């Protein structure tokens, strides 16, 4: 028995230190104390996880918060909880299903009619490693929700963002983009065998490339856009992975995992930092690993791919470009959407 004491104590000590130090090691809190009274913020996927905590922190800082979620029951409950905890009455639940271009257009219309301004748009919602599901419009679910949905939403709100300038767009990407590849011949996984991990990585690479191209197109408008990897955060994101699906891993490994990674409350701080920090005024087109600017993977620096992705995405979601890449007039015109055949439009 005694021969186990040393290794078990050593493991306990290392594990204890890891738990105690994790908040420090994983990035800490947003250093800015900026308040945002009078500013309107949209957070997508705000009923749980990082999105909910981002909405809570920005409500605490005085913002008018619009939570865009697909499940209205969960959204209303989260909005009510945030109003109660922050004593900020201006926290609203609105329907937004990023797996439906119809829903995205309806949401954007509601915002244009109801809101005088949009100062901060946080493209937070995400789905990771789900089965080979398709969105309502026939896109791969991960590419459709994580990239195309936010691409369309952002474009539809650009005029509002420009009117409210200086304004900020924040795209929740992921470190996973480093192993992502964009397959322009088959972005929606129709020709090759579906690989759910690669589909997530592709969608997150698309988030970083979208940020790069949008920043170029918004030069001179006062609207900035940056991408962020929030760190590893204990949320529901892994709900389709084996860690959550197997009884053993969810009941035994899951709690260990949760102790070692950031809480959603801390996981929200990188988004809050990008949204409010004074030192990021005018900073655009960058990628942040938690709260430190980093160079993204080489494939995320490919301007040609970024431009091509923009053009393909515009066609897929039914937006037609009037401006050119790199100009300050990126105005988009909405064209009637054809019944969708994904491959024929590439
Ligand atoms: N957690 C991490 O370690 C981590 C690491 C890197 C990057 N990220 C990124 O951070 C973002 C937030 O993730 P999270 O960890 O907070 O995950 P989460 O707890 O699973 O929350 C994701 C949110 O997105 C919403 N969502 C999913 N599909 C949607 C759709 N079709 N329309 C509207 N909303 C939809 C979810 O709504 P429902 O509740 O209705 O499903 C939920 O509110 C994601 O973009 C993710 O890729 C997270």
From TrEMBL:
It catalyses: all-trans-retinol + NADP(+) = all-trans-retinal + NADPH + H(+). Residues 1-16 form the signal peptide. It comes from the Eukaryota. Keywords: Lipid metabolism, NADP, Oxidoreductase, Signal. It holds the Pfam family adh_short. Belongs to the short-chain dehydrogenases/reductases (SDR) family. InterPro entries: NAD(P)-bd_dom_sf (IPR036291), SDR_fam (IPR002347). This is NADP-retinol dehydrogenase. Its EC number is 1.1.1.300. Residues 336-346 have a biased composition (Basic residues). The keyword NADP applies. Residues 322-332 have a biased composition (Polar residues). It comes from Amphilophus citrinellus. GO terms for molecular function: all-trans-retinol dehydrogenase (NADP+) activity. The keyword Signal applies. Pathway: Cofactor metabolism; retinol metabolism.
């Amino acid at each position: 028995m005694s021969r186990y004491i040393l290794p078990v104590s050593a493991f306990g000590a290392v594990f204890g230190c890891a738990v105690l130090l994790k908040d420090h090691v994983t990035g800490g809190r947003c250093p800015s104390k900026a308040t945002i009274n009078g500013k309107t913020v949209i957070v997508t996927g705000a009923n749980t996880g990082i999105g909910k905590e981002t909405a809570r922190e920005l409500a605490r800082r005085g913002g008018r918060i619009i939570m865009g979620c697909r499940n209205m029951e969960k959204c209303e409950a989260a909005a009510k909880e945030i109003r109660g905890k922050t004593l900020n009455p201006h926290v609203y639940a609105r329907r937004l299903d990023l797996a439906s271009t119809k829903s995205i257009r309806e949401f954007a219309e509601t915002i244009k009619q109801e809101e005088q301004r949009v100062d901060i748009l946080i493209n937070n919602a995400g789905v990771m490693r789900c089965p080979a599901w398709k969105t309502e419009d026939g896109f791969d679910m991960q590419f459709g929700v994580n990239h195309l949905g936010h691409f369309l939403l952002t474009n539809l709100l650009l005029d509002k963002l420009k009117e409210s300038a200086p304004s900020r767009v924040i795209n929740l990407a992921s470190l996973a983009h480093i192993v992502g590849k964009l397959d322009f011949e088959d972005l929606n996984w129709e020709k090759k065998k579906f690989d759910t991990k690669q589909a997530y990585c592709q969608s997150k690479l698309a988030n970083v490339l979208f940020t790069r191209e949008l920043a170029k197109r918004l030069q001179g408008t006062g609207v900035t856009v940056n991408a962020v990897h929030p760190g590893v955060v204990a949320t529901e994101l892994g709900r389709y992975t084996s860690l959550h699906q197997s009884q053993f891993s969810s009941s035994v490994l899951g709690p260990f995992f949760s102790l070692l990674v950031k809480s959603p409350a801390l996981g929200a701080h990188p988004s809050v930092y990008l949204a409010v920090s004074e030192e990021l005024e005018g900073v655009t087109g960058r990628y942040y690993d938690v709260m430190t600017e980093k160079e993204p993977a080489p494939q995320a620096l490919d301007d040609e791919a970024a431009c091509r992705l923009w053009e393909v995405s515009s066609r897929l979601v039914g937006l037609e470009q009037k401006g050119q890449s790199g100009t300050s007039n990126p105005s988009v015109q909405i064209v009637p959407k054809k019944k969708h055949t994904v491959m024929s439009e590439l």
